[in-house]
Specification:
about 110 residues, alpha+beta, Rossmann fold, two-stranded antiparallel sheet, 5 helices, about 10% strand, globular
């Protein structure tokens, strides 16, 4: 028996479109405002997108875009979000913030 969510999705997408979307989202590390992004901050585009939302260009032009990180955010999630160029402010716990700064700004030591 299909889940209710899957039955609703299949009303809008064919099974092949759903499979294509799953392939695209395999590289996603997070999402904000229903946009999925990868670890490098690239927005993952979907030609079958059915969500009404503000465009990425409009978000990038906004004076203030705040990101509020949940307790399950990872360093990769946050780095990807920052690399999108959308966020102007973030609220995150100190441990994650320190790890992000360490990973982005401190050089790796090779032995």
């Amino acid at each position: 028996m299909q889940s209710l969510t899957l039955r609703i999705i299949l009303q809008f997408l064919t099974l092949q479109q759903l499979r294509d979307l799953e392939k695209k989202l395999k590289d996603a590390v997070g999402h904000m405002v229903s946009y999925y992004y990868d670890k490098d901050g690239n927005i993952i585009e979907n030609e079958n997108d059915i969500v009404y939302r503000i465009t990425v260009d409009q978000l990038k032009k906004a004076d203030v875009v705040m990101g509020i990180c949940r307790c399950n955010v990872t360093v990769d999630n946050l780095i990807g979000a920052l690399k999108t160029g959308i966020l102007t402010h973030i609220f995150v716990d100190q441990q994650i913030a320190q790890e992000v700064v360490k990973r982005l700004y401190e050089p790796e030591v090779s032995l």
